[in-house]
Design brief:
Elements lengths: L1 H17 L2 H14 L10 H6 L4 E6 L5 E9 L2 E5 L5 E5 L2 E6 L5 E4 L18 E8 L6 E17 L2 E14 L11 E9 L5 E6 L8 E4 L1 H7 L13
Helix pairs in contact: 1-2
């Protein structure tokens, strides 16, 4: 807990140097909500709707669910930060870089042709080829994906049912790796709100030996739901 407090304090000092006083205090209030000392971080619908910052539920493997805050939106990338200074960088919902994980993704090529950007145009014969660089010394690994679309999937968030379209991405390594791998194939999952087409949840595994990262866009979902009373609590399932 002491280490966590120090980490959060350091992040707030940095923020204070780059933000106005009003924004600084708003961010402190968000941290109080997002990083409570609970096994799984869960906010009420009302808390999320009242937050001045976009919030993201994140579960990494078997770890407890945490909340990340959208700190920057620049050059088409959403940059989400956690209390321990981890960062997830996404383009149109796709993880393209990470900071603070056991083996960070450094770079992903050809993101402009990612079919997930255009869900309405995904066809069974769609494929996507890109190269990935990793912190532990693996560079230029070719990954190829194919996609399938599964309509009418129910998702329960904030104790309410949402109708979604699920995109399943089947990923495989095109090249042999530097390290022994027992499986070069895996799946990623993207849930889109059926009515608006908004990406509201994804589960992405960056490579076969890494644990999946499940991300639920709490603020996006809150904007799709009616305003809630203070007693309406719940979390993503």
């Amino acid at each position: 807990m002491i280490a966590l407090i120090k980490t959060v304090f350091s992040g707030l000092v940095l923020l204070a140097l780059t933000a106005c006083a009003g924004t600084y205090h708003s961010y402190i209030d968000t941290l109080k909500l997002a990083f409570a000392d609970t096994p799984d971080a869960e906010l009420s619908l009302a808390e999320v709707q009242q937050s001045q910052y976009d919030l993201l539920y994140v579960r990494h493997g078997e770890r407890a669910q945490a909340v990340m805050v959208l700190m920057h939106l620049e050059a088409g990338q959403h940059k989400w930060v956690s209390a321990d200074n981890a960062m997830l960088i996404m383009e149109q919902g796709r993880l393209v870089r990470t900071l603070g994980l056991e083996n960070d993704l450094l770079h992903l090529t050809n993101t402009i042709n990612d079919p997930v950007r255009r869900i309405a145009s995904i066809r069974p014969d769609n494929t996507w080829l890109r190269l990935a660089d990793w912190h532990n010394g693996e560079y230029g690994y070719a990954l190829r994906s194919r996609f399938e679309v599964i309509p009418a999937q129910q998702l329960t968030v904030f104790q309410q049912q949402l109708n979604t379209t699920l995109v399943v991405e089947h990923v495989k390594y095109e090249d042999s790796a530097n390290y022994l791998r027992f499986d070069g194939n895996w799946q990623n999952y993207f849930w889109f709100d059926s009515e608006s087409g908004t990406l509201i949840k994804s589960e992405q595994t960056l490579s076969p030996f890494l644990q999946p990262i499940t991300m639920t866009y709490a603020s996006r979902i809150a904007r799709l739901l009616p305003a809630a009373g203070s007693n309406n609590a719940g979390g993503a399932q």
